Amino acid sequence: YRGLYKVDNPNGDEIISKEGHSLTKRFRKLIQNSSQLKDGTLLDGEIVFITADGLPSFDQLSLYPNHSRKGSLQYIVFDILSDGKSSKVQSSLKTRKQILDEIELPT
After folding, report:
1. Fewer Cβ within 10 Å of end Cβ, the chain: N or C?
2. Tens of pLDDT, residues 82-96
3. How much is the pTM?
4. Cα–Cα distance between 84 and 68 in angstroms, integer?
C-alpha cells in the first residue's frame, strides 16, 4: 500500500493513505521513534510485506495483521514531501533524494 508517514513527535507519528485514511492502527508496528526528524516531516513510501523467502507478498499484506504468515512488515521510503520546515514538492527529485540520504529515516 502507498502511505504517507507524518512525523508528529508530541502526539505520535501516523501513516496515512493517499486517500487520507489513517493506516496507523493497522500498521502500528511500522511507527518508529522518529525524534531525530522535525515535526511536520512528511515521507512518501510503500508498505510491503516481505515473506520469509524474501519476496514481497500483496496477499499477505492484505491479510495483515490477522492471517499473515512468517515474514516482516516494512515501510520503504522513496520520497520526502516536507522536511518539517518547508515543502519539498517543488524541489527536484535529485534534491529530494539528497535530503533523504542525509537524514536518519524510520525503519
Report:
1. C
2. 999 999 999 999 999
3. 0.86
4. 34
Contact indicator for 29, 58 with CB cutoff of 8 Å:
no
C-alpha span between 90 and 96 (Å, rounded): 10
> What is the overall mean pLDDT for the chain?
89
- CA dist., res. 64 & res. 41, Å (int): 26
> Which helix (H) or strand (E) covers residue 101, if one does?
helix 93-102
Question: Residue 89 CB: number of other CB atoms within 10 A?
Answer: 11
Cell numbers for 12 = 505520535
CA gap 67, 90 in Å, rounded: 41
pLDDT in tens, 54-81: 999 999 999 898 876 789 999 999 999 9
